[in-house]
Structures are given as C-alpha cells and as structure tokens.
Amino acid sequence: MQRYSIFSLIKNAFSNHQNWEVAWKDSEPKKEYDVVIVGGGGHGLATAYYLAKEHKITNVAILEKGWIGGGNVGRNTTILRSNYMWDPNGLFYEYGMKLWENLSQELNYNVMYSPRGIINLAHSDAQLNVYSRRGNSMRLNGIDAVMLGRDELKKMIPFADFSPSARFPIFGGLMQPRGGTARHDAVAWGYARQADSMGVDIIQHCEVTGFDVQNGKIQGVQTSRGNIKTKKVGLCVAGSTSLLAEKLNMKLPIESHVLQACVSEPVKPFLDHVVTFGAGHFYCSQSDKGEMVMGGDLDGYNSYAQRGNLPALQHVLSEGVAMFPNLSRLKMLRTWGGIMDMSMDGSPIIDKTHIDGVYLNCGWCYGGFKATPVSGWTFAYTIAQDQAHELNSKYKLNRFNTGHLIDEKGVGTKTWIG
Amino acid sequence: MLEIKCPYCGKRSQNEFSYGGDASVKRPQLEKEISDKEWDSFVYFRSNPRGKHSELWHHVAGCRQWFKVSRNTLTHEIFKTAKINEEL
Q1: Which residues in chain A are contacts of B4 at CB distance < 8 A?
Q2: Whether A253 and B2 lie within 8 Å, measured CB to CB
Q3: Is A354 on the interface with B (CB under 8 A)?
C-alpha cells in the first residue's frame, strides 16, 4: 500500500495526480472465508480492520448490499463524545475517544478529528443539577467534563439566545472539551483502505439473502452473488438488523426508525463547538465548509425509508431557532434520513447469539458514528475470542430478559415520551 | 406528510397523531401463570418488518382515541385503519 505523506503528495503532483493507487479493491467473493462481516458501513469496516490488525485474522470478507459508506456512516452529523453517566457506556465510549484521538495517524488517513468540545445547554436549575451529576460521574470514569455558567457560555456561543425574552433561558451547560467531530466519509474510507491492504475482501453490491445453519452452527451465508462458506458471521447492519435476524429465526428488542439530518447553506464562522439544546432534542455544529449541520428527533414511527417527513424536520428546526434565533435566516441546502436500529433501552448490543458463530452488533440508536472505532475494536475481539471483551460485556442481548438494562436517558424507541 | 384516516374523525394530517408502535403485541392474561420470557417479549420484543406493519396510533390532538393502522414501513402507504376492537 502506498503511504500518504507530504512526499507522496509532491511526487504525485508531478504527474497531475493521475497515478495514485486505488485506495481499496472492489473484490470478487471467494468460496470460503474465516469470518464474514455483513454490512460495509463504519462498524463493519472497523471490525474487519481490527480483526486483521489485532487478531491477525485476514481471511475476512465484508459483504455490502450497496456501496461502502453509503448507509448511516455517510448520513450522520459526525459528532464524537463520551459524555455518558453509566459506567458501561462511559468506559466504552471513552475507550472509543482514545481511539479517535490517534485514528488519523493509525489509519494514515486524515479523518479530520476536531476536538472542538461538545456543550449540552441547561435551561433550568434542575437540569444543571442533573448535568453536574453526570459531569461528576464522567470525571470519576476519567472522562473530561466542565460545568459552564451563563456568562462563560455568552462568550463561547454569543449567537445563542441570551435575551430576557428567550423561551428557554440558558442557565449553564456541561461541556466535554475532547468531544467534537470527524469527517465521516474519511472514517469509512480510511478503515476500508487499511483493511483491504491487510487482505480483507471488500465485496460491494452483494446482498445476504439467507444463512446456512446446521445443528445450531453457522456454515455459511447465501448472497445475491452465490453461497459463501464460513464459520463465523458478524452482523453490522444497523437499521436492517431485524430483517437479517428474522432469517435466523430471531426476534430482537429493536425497532427501525428514520432519523433526519440537514445542512444549511455555508456561512462564515458562526459556531466553534458542537451544541445541544437542553429543552428538546436538537444538536448542531458548523462544518469546515461553513454549513450548519443539524439534527434532532426521529420521525417517530417505524420506517425503512431512508428519507424523512416534513413535520419532524419542522419540529427539530423550530427548536434550533429557539436556541439560535438567527438560524431562521439560513436557507436549507440538503436534508436526508438514515435508518436507526433503536434498541429498547437506548444502548447498543454487541454479543454472541444462540447460534454458534453468529455475532450481533446493533442497537446503536442515535449514536453509532462516534462508536465506530470502539464498536469495531470490541466486536472484532468478540468474534475472534468467541467471548465479549470487558468493555462490551454489559451490552448483552439477554439483558432485556435479565433486567440489566442500560437506560442512560430512560428512553428507548419512544424517544418522544422521554 | 402522512394523511391518516382516523376511524372516528376521518382523514387528518400526521401532525394530529402520535405513534404507539407494534399492534400485534398482546399483554399476557392476568389470571394466568406468566413466565419471565412471556413478560420480556411483551415488554421489549417487537416485530419490525420492512413492508406491511400493524401499528397503534393515537389521535392525540383530535378525538384522543387509540386505533390500528396497517401501513407499509418502506413506502408509508396506509392500507387500512380500524378501531381498536376491530380486525385490521
């Protein structure tokens, strides 16, 4: 693999950038693999990369029904954070933050990690109390957290509504300074390039249509491009998880919902941080191009359509305008939707299943993108060692039977009730 | 924008409704001995098809009645709506 550096850039400039190697191959399926990963999104690509790098398992195929990075990894609002209160979440996502910090160097691909800080705004005393409790829990787990007062916030986000007539006055906020954003497509491409260079086959336009299970053991997968034998299958298919699980006779505590995001026309630097609204569900940041990147609530009903509906978008943007009144002057450039695998307690599942050799990675709800590295890292461990790593040991599928829910916000699929 | 036909009020815009999820979920009978598994599946496990889905909706900004809707989760086509005690 050709390494990217200032020297390779200069060298290729002499040939008008016509002679760059392809970043990854579009492979043909082989008859048999040691591990098959279903889903060529961020989590699937990261899983394959860590299988090859950490566990030296390189006879791996990634099967993607569309093209890699065409699903939720290209449809999110690129936010990274580990500002969770419960230990299983805090420790898991914090390990992920440490992977993010070094990811560009590790992948030799600029993922544009930007630790610009994420601020959760509080609009009442009670909310400030809740935030300080969460901030303290974070600090006990070694995660950075800072409480901000109204005056500090005024300096940091001067365009927020600090006027006396604000419908939701800003009392303060909780900030995770290391939180921020990364370039989502680069994450997919960076993982794909490294995985490919270590021998992983990236097979696009190859849909899994069935599974070959005998005596409770996986033998292979049936695909639109023929049958593939394998002893281990990892599912990383986000919103489509229930559909594949049905082919394995599994019913899951998952509902698929569409979540919309949108970007405005580009404007001059306006917002230096990622900011979330505390009186509803709205979050925004400004991209390097100057667009405001915004998102919020689900549309609110089961959906497999990768596009949303106007009422949810209007609701979300009215919250945005309540927070930053001058957003109302911006024109919207694009809106889109992705299919979220909403788990019933709002936390993910990374676990083995009742079928020997079938592993499950799902239930990411709103937060799959920030987990890409740590999800891949722990899922690769779970597949390679046939057991959960300590970090994902609480993300069990059977926690819904045993009662060990990880109810970080007390909301699952019915987020509008919370 | 979905247009949902409330069995009591007729066609109304989606803004008036709230979603209640999978209508095929049945609460276990109270007078019966119920296993943990039955309770778990009642509380947490849902059918999640791509295509025809029976679901509950609440006409929250209207007559406030709950009712059933048969809807396609991919195209959002609404096939039929019915009162809660009727078959879809």
Answers
A1: none
A2: no
A3: no
Q: pLDDT of A78-130, one tens digit each?
A: 999 999 999 999 999 999 999 999 999 999 999 999 999 999 999 999 999 99
| Contact: A305, B55; criterion CB under 8 Å | no
This prediction's pTM: 0.96
Q: Residue B5 in contact with residue B80, Cβ under 8 Å?
A: no
Structure tokens at A330: 């911006």
Residue count of chain B, please give it: 88
Most B CBs within 10 A among A301, A314, A354, hence the mutation to make, goes to A301
pLDDT digits (tens, 9 = 90+) for A23-64: 999 999 999 999 999 999 999 999 999 999 999 999 999 999
| ipTM for this prediction | 0.95
How far out from the chain centre does Cα A290 lie? 22
